[in-house]
Design a protein that fits this description.
Helix content: over 70%
Structural class: mainly alpha
Largest sheet: none
Oligomer: single chain
Number of strands: 0
Order of helices and strands: HHHHHHHHHHHHHH
Radius of gyration: 22 Å
Distance between the termini: 32 Å
Shape: globular
Length: about 300
């Protein structure tokens, strides 16, 4: 049996999210795209089986799994995010027209169209695509730098980022917003083809992007959270080194037409709340987890000592 209280906090988050969305699919089948419910439920069974297998490979006997169990659940976001497109059919119809109206009221026009139209330069196009692609680099660098400073800091950073991602995924299920790149007709939905970063972006979007997840911008929100983590941990050099890239990333979301301006504002406004929520839950879940695991470690040590005495 999967012992939930002995799972690490990041594992617990993944389990809760898998079970919550599975319950949603079972209780509200009309909210799931036709033909997708069974594959998505089977995928959740596979995730739970993998977590069970990792837990069975006890970290006392395989210490290298500790890092995998506490950090690699972040990789599941590559699956959780695009599948929100298949789960966002219940609460609202498509809301892109509403968000375009919001941009119109806020700015008097559509920045997602005007930005690249008035600045179509190849070098800027490449810079914007590079900045957008740097999102995963910023996450990885934040977690690994925190881990290098102290293992607990790395695990905490991974947990806060994962929690934020999962909250954003729930919002994407509730609020079906495609973003300009999917909603607008050609040629307003794209920027000129350049090389290499625009080409890489198109390749990755063809593989993992779906018409979902525009509001709020998780790219902006998670990036802000990473910057907050670095600042809170007094990693000032890395913070200042990444700050210009983070600012460019926020601009790039509108330039490459992944988001409306209100999406960016949504990411900026939700980031501080999610950072604080993640910190609070980490304190509670990690203390509970390690308190539960302490007797197991003591029993293991006792049994190891008994075994040695018999020989």
């Amino acid at each position: 049996m999967l012992r939930l209280r002995q799972c690490y906090p990041a594992e617990q988050l993944s389990i809760y999210y898998a079970l919550l969305t599975a319950a949603y699919m079972v209780a509200l089948p009309g909210g799931v795209a036709e033909g997708q419910r069974l594959p998505l439920l089977l995928a959740r069974a596979a995730v739970l089986a993998a977590l069970f297998a990792l837990q069975r490979a006890d970290t006392r006997r395989a210490p290298r799994l500790t890092f995998a169990r506490q950090v690699l659940p972040l990789a599941l976001v590559l699956f959780w995010y695009p599948e929100t497109y298949y789960l966002n059919r219940f609460f609202f119809p498509n809301l892109d027209a509403l968000f375009m109206q919001a941009d119109e009221l806020l700015l008097g026009g559509q920045a997602c169209i005007a930005f690249s139209r008035h600045m179509p330069w190849a070098w800027l196009n490449e810079l914007m695509n590079f900045a957008y692609l740097s999102f995963y680099f910023i996450i990885a660098l934040t977690v690994l730098a925190s881990y290098k400073a102290a293992k607990a800091k790395g695990y905490r950073a991974a947990f806060v980022v994962l929690l934020s991602f999962l909250v954003y995924c729930l919002l994407f299920i509730i609020l079906p917003v495609m973003g300009p790149q999917f909603y607008l007709p050609p040629p307003h939905n794209s920027t000129p083809d350049t090389w290499p970063f625009r080409a890489i972006m198109q390749l990755l979007q063809g593989w993992g992007e779906r018409p979902t997840g525009a509001f709020p911008s998780s790219h902006v929100g998670i990036t802000v959270i990473c910057m907050q983590l670095l600042h809170a941990q007094k990693m000032r050099k890395l913070f200042w080194a990444l700050l210009p890239l983070a600012a460019l990333l926020a601009l790039s979301t509108v330039y490459i037409k992944a988001h409306y301006v209100v999406d960016v504002l949504g990411g900026l406004l939700t980031a501080p709340f999610l950072h604080r929520l993640g910190d609070g839950l980490w304190g509670k879940m990690s203390s509970s987890c390690y308190a539960e695991r302490a007797p197991q470690r003591r029993n293991s040590a006792t049994n190891d000592g008994a075994g040695l005495s018999r020989h």
